Amino acid sequence: MYQSRFESRQVASGSVAPQPAAASMWLENMVSLLGIGLGMGVICFTSFHFHILFLIPSLASSAIMLFVSYQNVFAQPRNVVGGHIMSALAALLMLVIWEPAWWSIALVVVLAGLLMIVTNTIHPPGGGTAIAAYLGGYSPGVLLGTVVADTIIIVLVAWAVNKLIAHRQYPRFWV
Left if phi > 0, otherwise alpha if psi is -120 to 50, otherwise beta: which for 137? Predict the structure, then answer.
């Protein structure tokens, strides 16, 4: 039988462990959705204002991780910021060597994965950043500046919104 994480559970001593009420599940989900909307709203506003739209898709994936799967190691600030930065660097390195082609697009994701593994900053949505940055034709300054600014914004919004739910601990670690 399925037991919701919000139902009471019997513990070894025979007492019942306190769990949040079912109504709090809806409140928690609403706060998560508010966080996704707020974080992406800020990112989309600044992206449209500066006409730099390439990060919106991969940051949408990051936003869902940060507000719904906030305890996941891949959703922690080091991984979010570092993973997107490593992916942008992979795109810049590939652009120095090869023009975009079908095979080099696959290779840029492999390189992004390698850089994230080596730096212990794995963040799966970074793969999307690598592709978008590789195909986008942005200057290194615009590319890296946008990645750093937008990832810091989304992490700070996640930190603030996740604080609204008392039992949420975000981040588990910063660096």
Answer: left
